[in-house]
Amino acid sequence: MPMRRLGKVFKQMAIFAALIIAAAGYGYFLAKDAVAEAEGQKIETSGSIGSETDSDGEYFKGEIPVVAISSDYSPYAYYNDQDSVDGADIDILKEILVEDGTDVMKIEDMSFGQLSTALDSGKADIAAVGITQTQERDQVMDFSDVYASAQIVIVMPENSTMTSVDEMDGSGVFGVLQNSLAQTSCEEHGYETLIYEDRESMWRDLATGLLDGAADDCIWVQQYMDIYGGYKILDGILAAEDYVFAVSESNQELLAKINAGIKRLKDTGRIDEIIEEHVGLGLQKHMM
Fold it and tell me: 100, 122, 127, 281: most buried by Cβ count inside 10 Å?
């Protein structure tokens, strides 16, 4: 074969190989995108996109809002039976944003400590789930109005002689969830604790007498008391904190819209309904 023709063949073979490699690479990214979609990164709602949706960066940095969450804080954020991110905070934001004409939002799940960085770097428009307002956080983000509150109470058997948190003298062993406000509060008061990863184990030990009592958010305590029976909540609150959404300091228009949505949903009682729905879903998931 003449050298010129041989060179042409080699050239054609090189082009063909390059096309195969490019196709393989493209297929990889298509597969990667499909996996991301299957993992529920985009959360669709029942609304329709309206004229106020920010395609020009008026409210959101991209075409759809990006919400940064930490999915380990049920009922506000958790993974459901379909292994998709779910929770009260997500549903509350859905209803707020749909009212403003946005029907899709992207959820970015990360550790709680990364939420402020995501806002500051512009990777997220909104941070949610268990956020409380502090002076340190106030330096890098702005906060919405309060949309929910946690109240830590003490639950004990009905036959206990104690009736109030003020009567507690440090005796007894109390169950708490790991890394919770209840754990912090009990430790600050000097109470002996057993730390649990889930409420079901804690309540089973309470029912068998391994624990003298338990400390938890009131919304969960009331639900479990209905299941187990024979318990009472001591008068008084051990600790409390208010939850807010956060946005970057430069996005006051988005903050105003979130606050308007919070007011609308609180006035109708919808926020309480959403939280109760997810408390119920959490119980169904773990008690089956």
Answer: 127
